[in-house]
Amino acid sequence: MKSKLQTLLDRYKAPGDKKQKDLLRYQIEGEIFTVLSSTIDRYSEHLKDIVITVSTLMQSERVSLMVRKGNFLEISASHGLPESALQRGSLIRVGTGIAGKVAETGEPVFTGDLTRNEDLKQSSIGGPGFKSNAFICLPLKADGNVLGVINVSNPIEGPSYKKSDFNFLQKVADKIALLLHKSMKFESMRHETTSMPPTLQSIDSGTHMDVKKDDDLGKAPPPPLPPQARKK
Length: 232
Prior knowledge:
Helix content is 46%, strand content 19%. The protein is α+β, with helices and mostly antiparallel strands.
């Protein structure tokens, strides 16, 4: 069964006038943010749909999302990358290539034509020979840390990307970064809980705590004994 995002995307790809396309784009953007805001422990299941959606809305041949794992970046989801590039570039060291430098510095790269800049061309994903035109690489930043990058390249229509494309991708990157941050915290907390000894897990869950019965809650304490009944 198709998701709401996939259904909207199919309608966007179908022929239609500009007004209809603009309305569908607005709905798709809203659904992207809804999906990214409502998914924490299963975010990876939706990343492929997200990169395909970004590719469609930005009219781009290639999109890749890379998550930082220690000193490396790993491709978590992609669209349009050749198999050879995936095999060679599935892991990129932080500080190496465009994506690695963006991950290291936290600064985006937004260029009109990658093929005219030899330094960028030689350091693009997949190494020398990875042909591309316009290129955007944005860091996925949350809580002061770079958690990964998102790359978009080869616009289908026109020689370069517009500022509006950059702004749209920045909003998506911010949402993905926030999701990654929450997911990592969730995984860390789950790992801490599962690594506890069974006794500590029980205590942490409150099973060993003395809890008053519901019937006892809200009852006033018994009145003190009258003086004549007290022991002397």
